Amino acid sequence: MADRVLVTTDDLEHAVRINAQLEGAGYDTALVSSFDDVRQAVRGRDLPPDCIILTGGLHETTAQHLLASAREQAISTLGLVEATEPDPKGLARTLGLTAWLAKPADPAEVAATVRRLIDRRKLQQRTGILGESPPIQEVLVKIEQMAPVTSTVLIEGESGTGKELVARGIHDLSPRRGKAFIAVNCAALPETLLESELFGHEKGAFTGAAERRLGRFELAEGGTIFLDEVGETEPATQVKLLRVLEDHTFFRVGGVQPIKVDVRVIAATNKSLKEAVTLGTFRDDLFYRLNVLAIYLPPLRERRSDIALLVRRFIAEFAAQHDRQFRGITPEALQILVDADWPGNVRQLRNLIESMVVLAPEGEIRAGDIPPDIRDRSWGGAGGVGRLPMRLAHTARDVAGQEVEFILRSLVELKLQVEELRRRIEDRPAQRVEVIEVGGGGGGGGGGGGSGSVATLPNPFDAEAAPEPHVIYRAGMTMADVERAAIEAALKETRGNRRKAADVLGIGERTLYRKLKEYALA
Ligand SMILES: Nc1ncnc2c1ncn2[C@@H]1O[C@H](COP(=O)(O)OP(=O)(O)OP(=O)(O)O)[C@@H](O)[C@H]1O
Ligand SMILES: [Mg+2]
Fold it and tell me: CA-based angle 181:123:289, to the nearest 5?
């Protein structure tokens, strides 16, 4: 389907020539004469245009309304600015035009600009990466170039500059898009937990490793793994990462079998890895392995021209999300935001806009709504004192938070397993499930608070040897072992009738089928 472009007829001569050029280039074009026409074209039809060219009347309020409409729907706009305009750049920024050209405009140049705007818009829609500044445009070009290959990418940039957004963009544009994208924050976990998180562990690899657990590398098979804050990894983990990057194999913690994976690695860091190499805290061979392709995301204060656009888009997004009628932002307030230092970069700006959209009393962000620390630019104040604690506080909170989350998750998993076990025992006492703690079963914690009898019993997994359909708990058995044995016993009792077995076990037939497959009993 052809891309759609609307051309306003404020400057009829330009409009006609541009329209002919675009039609010749295969676009689906329409000349629109009044604001109502445009509004209908933008809002009324099923498919909004991909780009609108305003040939004149940029100072009219109708143009401003039209641009606001276009912005809401993420339609690119190209304005033709009069040659007499004293500050065309400033005008384009105030209006929120995506691009501008001075009059007289060459139709071929207009067509080339339209092509660029439409291609970029599509890419930005797919990735969610906003920004018109040259560095962001460069990043978008790199994403397009890097997506199709499997080489490792290293993304560098301060906190909140969009590193994860870029990593996801590369994955979503790559042939791996149908497979997993798995993000791991390497700074969030202590070394041993991180290794088990990345590479998994074998049953009994360490205290508490009751079951084999797959690591993120295995879970990302065929897809992409995003190693955030890779500079924070310890030397031992660095060696293991180097091995995966070199020959795509690794060992689970406590494992002896090498495991081969097909995973693309994208790494990110908010401190200079090169510097870490010089300081000796990061292996140089790993750095070169990671740094095959590199993307640098500059801090927001180095691309201030993006701030107005980000502010507008975040306002529109949060106004819709919080169901608030919101007019926008006053020029004075916008200027304060453009001039601020943004140590937390886009994340900080985005969070601030959300709070102001929710809290601003007038349905519009005014200078007085902006917190004093931003207004006074105190973040970047003398000696940058304000900057450092914020970064550290953020990271420390993240690390602690994720560690706690990991522990909580493990506890919840454990609790669910215990509850499931208890439910089974209570549901069907003595006849089918007998829990016996066997002393000296060799290694492992065990600790199942069962009936307490100590006995030597036949191997529950050997169907021939087990005379009765009993399930026996032995120290060291995992919940999965018990469950598998219970299913075998139930099937034995029901002479292989799966419907009845499911009934006996108190689970759905579909669950039973799933478990049969899981335990390779089918
Ligand atoms: N160019 C951008 N356009 C739109 N949103 C952005 C852009 N850059 C960042 N964001 C938003 O800012 C927030 C932070 O981005 P992201 O998590 O990718 O940053 P980061 O560089 O990974 O930060 P950190 O180093 O703290 O992990 C996210 O909500 C993201 O959507
Ligand atoms: Mg991140």
Answer: 45
Name residues whose C-beta falls within 8 Å of residue 219's C-beta, 6 or more positions apart in sequence.
180, 182
The secondary structure element, H or E, covering residue 185 is: strand 181-185
48 CB within 6 A, ligand 1: no
Binned at pLDDT 50, 70 and 90, residue 520 comes out as confident
Q: Which of 111, 114, 5, 18 is nearest to 49 (CA)?
A: 5
Structure confidence by residue, pLDDT tens digits, 235-268: 999 999 999 999 999 999 999 999 999 999 999 9
Beta strands in 264-337 (DSSP E): 264-269, 293-297, 328-329
Angle of helix 498-505 relative to helix 509-518, nearest 10 degrees, comes to 100
Between CA 252 and CA 195 the distance in angstroms is 9
Q: Which two tokens stand for residue 303?
A: 């691309």
CB 476 within 8 A of CB 414: no
Distance of alpha carbon 212 from alpha carbon 255, whole angstroms = 10
Q: For residues 39 and 52, is the Cβ–Cβ distance under 8 A?
A: no
165 Cβ closer than 6 Å to some ligand 1 atom? yes
Joined together, the tokens standing for residue 501 give: 């077995």
CA gap 397, 395 in Å, rounded: 5
Which of 245, 263, 251 minimizes the C-alpha distance to 195?
251
Phi/psi of residue 474, nearest 5 degrees: -115, 150
Distance 327 CA to ligand 1 centre (A): 25
Q: Among 120, 164, 317, 345, which residue has the most ligand 1 atoms within 8 Å of its CB, making it the best to mutate?
A: 164
For the stretch 285-301, pLDDT in tens is 999 999 999 999 999 99
Task: Please tell me the pTM assigned to this model.
Answer: 0.65
Angle between helices 331-339 and 307-321 (to 10 degrees): 120
Element counts in the chain: helices (H) and strands (E): 20, 18
